[in-house]
Amino acid sequence: MTLFKVDPYDGTGNGPTEYKIFVKNFPEVRLIRQFLRPDMEELSKEKESFDAIYSISVLEHVPLSALEEDVFPAIKMYLRPQGLSIHAIDMVRKGIGDKESLSMLLKIAELSEIPEVDVMQGLEQMDDDVETYYLSAEGHNLWRNGILYEKFPMRKCTSMQVCARYPLTSVYAQPSLNSHLSNKASEFFATAPSANQFNRSINL
What we know:
Layout: E1 2-6, H1 19-25, E2 30-32, E3 50-56, H2 64-78, E4 79-94, H3 98-111, H4 116-128, H5 137-144, E5 156-166, E6 170-175, H6 183-190, E7 200-203
Parallel strand pairs: 1-2, 1-7, 3-4, 3-7
Antiparallel strand pairs: 4-5, 5-6
Helix pairs in contact: 2-3
């Protein structure tokens, strides 16, 4: 299995900065110290060669212009036919920042060619499911990082998975930790390999 990790390691969006430590601890991972974009020199021979490109809690921190001009064009360039684009998007469902979170989620879904109606149905299902997992008070306090509660009050936060197979044959947007997957999501995963079956993948 070949794994590429594409990240500038400059702390952008609270991302990692420990580049040398990653190089030492994960020699089997090919680290590329950049943002993902089309026509990268390091990936010049890798077009249409990856089984999956995935991320966890990353895309919501990327500027919209970079998503439109760099990230999603690159995803479609480097994925093999029928490759999978899988991204967990953290979002504020209720509280300060919820409108901005929803707007970003819908834009990421649009760039993934997922209809808005599917996203909204996923959110409604999430709201109705008693087993949907939300960020704990302890997790929120860690996120708050010492800021006074009055300036950083509690929010209802969760994560949505935005997934697509290119060329576009199946897509879905679904709560990441929801206990009940929709028929569309179940069909998607029924034909998708598990993560350890990806021979070649890129993590953002």
